[in-house]
């Protein structure tokens, strides 16, 4: 197996590359900005600065969901060419659109805090009657959150709406649960969890958290959430068993120490569990190349 580790910075990728190499897997880091998609007529090629995509069988991707406009076309092309990637095509568009994420989770029976949306500030008071205070309220332009507050009652909600002077395309109202946040790293079917207390509605950093054994019902909910979004490896936050965020980019700083685990190594093991699938795709890709070569010769009619 040959794995290309794509990340925004070398510092993010170093420990992952090291973990792959320690288990005898060829791995190379490449900065995400050094990847290009070149389209010629009806064909798109993946170009790497200083390397060749054909030198790899699989990709381990670490990038913020906000990079979806670039990452998604890349994911689609990698998938079309038979590469295994830890994020499925569509997963970045979905995780970068918070209101759509919660709609998708809810219709697939993932437990989340009750969430409602409104396209207009004029309707927000009427919409808010269908949900209990306190509320986490966010205003959006497109899929980007502009402002957010915790409203304890209708008066605070209306004051927030009236304070917004710029053009807003919509609002999201979500039940706010003032309980500790359980931050989880998901690797396939494994979940590593850290409990983070809240103080004055602010969640303490990961390094102030403590190991938490996730109940089976919560684990099932977390895994269901990652499958709905299309992520094999992800960070998921829970409150009282309900998913409040999901992100394809993971930061393992402090997680290994708190959970007494080597999560990078578990990621490598997960990739090894995909080895047969990766080999089958590699063989299929080689056959497609052979077909493409022969189709341009006098034998081409046999490959139509």
Automatic annotation (TrEMBL):
One of its GO terms (biological process) is SOS response. GO terms for cellular component: cytoplasm. It comes from the Archaea. GO terms for molecular function: ribosomal S6-glutamic acid ligase activity. InterPro entries: ATP-grasp_RimK-type. Residues 105-269 form the ATP-grasp fold RimK-type domain. PANTHER family: BETA-CITRYLGLUTAMATE SYNTHASE B-RELATED, RIBOSOMAL PROTEIN S6 MODIFICATION PROTEIN. This is ATP-grasp fold RimK-type domain-containing protein. It comes from Candidatus Iainarchaeum sp.
